[in-house]
Design goal:
Number of domains: 2
Distance between the termini: 59 Å
CATH architecture of the largest domain: 3-Layer(aba) Sandwich
Strand content: 5-15%
Bound molecules: zinc ion
């Protein structure tokens, strides 16, 4: 017996990661109780998000331009690529100011149980990018979480890059096992970058 507008809004919230049907319904009711201009601003921010964000053709991060600012910056080292799962991971690494190369966003990590197979990620694009890069890429840093999907992905990419003359390193010390890059503090991440192996 829910009002259709509440149902519709709850269904939208329900699609967000980590939000179940009960929380979705709570958000819908909470939002409905807010002043009209609050709800309208909220809706407008989502419309702007939809109309202004693009995926960078080179590194696949979400950006407002393609190529993104980092890919266009001639001062960034063109010979090293840091591979990350998501666009947010780039923010975390940029905050450390310890890396001056470019990035490659996979769009997730491998997880057979969740149905995240290699073809759902930008792995082939990474291999192509390294193959065709001018100047040649000399180092690929795997900036992936230190959990099982992160390890699986790192292993898979390492195999895919076999035969290409690139040094493959992985963020190492500093990141506790099972850690998520997005939530690591800048010092920890900076340390992990410095001690990659
Ligand atoms: Zn880019």
């Amino acid at each position: 017996m829910l009002p259709p507008a509440i149902q519709e809004a709850a269904a939208s919230f329900d699609r967000l990661p980590g939000i179940g049907p009960r929380a979705a319904l709570r958000y819908a009711y909470w939002l409905a109780a807010q002043p009209k201009d609050f709800i309208e601003r909220f809706a407008r921010s989502l419309q702007i998000l939809a109309s202004s964000m693009v995926v960078c053709e080179s590194c696949h991060q979400l950006s407002d331009t393609s190529p993104c600012l980092i890919c266009r910056d001639p001062k960034r080292d063109q010979k090293s690529i840091c591979v990350v799962a998501s666009s947010q991971d780039i923010r975390a690494l940029e905050d450390t100011a310890a890396f001056n190369g470019r990035y490659h966003v996979l769009g997730g990590t491998l997880d057979p149980i969740e149905g995240r197979r290699p073809e759902t990620l930008k792995i082939q694009e990474l291999v192509e990018r390294i193959r065709s890069s001018q100047p040649p890429i000399s180092e690929v840093i795997l900036g992936l979480d230190t959990d099982l999907p992160g390890d699986t992905t790192a292993l898979y990419i390492t195999k895919q890059l076999e035969g290409l003359s690139v040094r493959i390193t992985r963020l190492a010390r500093g990141l506790p096992s099972g850690a998520s890059l997005e939530y690591a503090d800048a010092n920890t991440l900076s340390d992990a970058l410095k001690h990659r192996k």
